[in-house]
């Protein structure tokens, strides 16, 4: 009978109802079997005795050195959270709900991915972690292009994103997301902290030439530095964008020689900065005198890894940093000791921020009593803490940016050890680098975190 | 004016690297008829002979660093410095030029093994097969280097004595602001010397004459009782040495990483096509020309009119040249046109 119906292409009303019901059951199945049926009301709720975190860092590309150090710090943080090793900053972090028995009693495990310092590769890697490995939180950097892309992905998927090294204003500015959090400082803060030091050391009325990595981070740092240096009476001669994958900057540096610029601001980071600074020095820029002033170079975002890579060339050059291993507070010392014993050298600022982010996430889960993203968001928003090496710090609720003191550093003239390449010249207080969450450089009044997403 | 001269210098410097790679590519294509996508990997391998030699020269003894008090840190003191003192330090300082001595036999060997071991099996196969197998070989070589040296660029310093820059403004009676790094001038001189040597070898030696004859008419040369295959194999080896030396000398300019060969290879192929397939002078001319154009396209004055032009100039020029002169600047009829 039914055969006859099909061959004649004639469907009865009952057949259509049956087919409709069957389709409804199939379409509804995923939510019935994978959603609330198990009592889980958020994506990738940990089952069993472990919880998996996703460490998504550049293991190749211009920021690979930073990525390697981030990964070391993540592994150390996992060790400490699981109650192994000396505990590092878990001992100084306050207030703390961490117990040294994993997170919420579940042992912490992790998966790693290579972002290749490319946004598409980073997203693919994070997607794999979320869909295949079932991670409940993704963390990592470096590169703000990557951070913004992965933060967006985590928001859509419904997991927490704890940003690693990302310095663009956009990460917690126009591209801020409810599920994303940044402990690292940003380009605006670098400009605000650096300008007074530059004025005190180099005076007013200088002519600055910018070389800028041509992506999200470079643009915002260039804008912030232009604003803050122009506010102290400096003039911006030229701002030239250079491709991120560029290794030879000679064709961008040679034209600087024939302008009336007396200052070169390198908005470069990682391998880019090592190459551009080394090449700028080899072109004799630092030996020049322009308009009666010694030519100077400024590297607004500094890191010890870069400084070591660039060797002698960094001596006397000013920049800013989120944290430095020579700080003498209790938290920093505990972290340097723990990291140093594990790996034989001190941690970089990239390592510091990722270690802090892991602890902050774990602590928020403990305080919220759940891994549920919206619960974690609520626990982190407006949270105030201390003992993680930066003094009193606050995760501002409006934009999920950490506010704390910023360090202005200088390439050390007479290093006392192989790691002693930077010296802290000023600790700029939080009040001086703070801005309004609706500031124009951060997306203005339209910028919004949006709602939190649990992924179901 | 100063800017123009400096950009020309920058351009011919980069162009010199393109020209050296393109020269080898053209040599291999002209003699063996193979489009060798593994040629960039040879450039990279050359650079890593410098890295390897420096690593060997700086094999170190670990000594506790007393200045670090937070944790147990160790300083590495090279054995050469321990046993030979200042002389040992000087040897390490000259690691890049010294590695030329190792790179020549090593790259020759790599070239011979590559040709005899793999590429000769593909002479009679279509160009597509040749491209696939050589591209695959390039990936394998890249991954091997990545396995041992990691993905990060490894800075290589030029010897201290040429670390600064030359005041070329004073040489030619122009502004003092015209300075140019010594090592880049050395690279340029070195590249010109290598190009001259290759041309002289092909023009003024019997071996070169036979090779040129073989490039014109392989069958007739073979009928005269000359083992042209063997000579072409040696030409492949020479092309490998040229690429290797180009990579090695480039290390103080741009720190080498496993991917550097591929970065240069793509542009070098464009150079070969613009110069004219199979034309050695064309490859050299196009190398310098494209290097200079790329350098000028990076000027802000140009970029402000045409944003992003520095990224596409080479390909744009290639399109124009191929439209106007479909066989490239100095290409001849009959090459790759069967």
How does this structure look, described?
The complex is a heterodimer of chains A (456) and B (338). Chain A has 456 residues and is an alpha/beta fold. Chain A folds into 3 domains: 2-34; 50-185 and 327-399, Response regulator (Rossmann fold, 3-Layer(aba) Sandwich); 188-321, Response regulator (Rossmann fold). Chain A contains 14 helices and 17 strands. In chain A, the strands form 4 sheets. Chain A has a 7-stranded mixed beta sheet with strand order 7-6-8-11-12-16-17, with helices on both faces. A 5-stranded parallel beta sheet of chain A has the order 2-1-3-4-5, with helices on both faces. A 3-stranded antiparallel beta sheet of chain A has the order 13-14-15, with no helix packed on it. In chain A, α3 (64-81) packs parallel to α12 and α12 packs across α13 (373-380). The longest helix of chain A is centred in the first third of the chain and has 22 residues, at 13-34. Residues 1-10 and 25-39 of chain A have low confidence and may be disordered. Chain B has one domain. Chain B is built from 15 helices and 4 strands. Chain B has helices at residues 2-32, 39-57, 79-84, 86-93, 95-117, 127-149, 168-171, 182-204, 206-216, 218-223, 228-250, 260-275, 280-297, 300-305, 309-324, and strands at 60-64, 74-78, 165-166, 180-181.
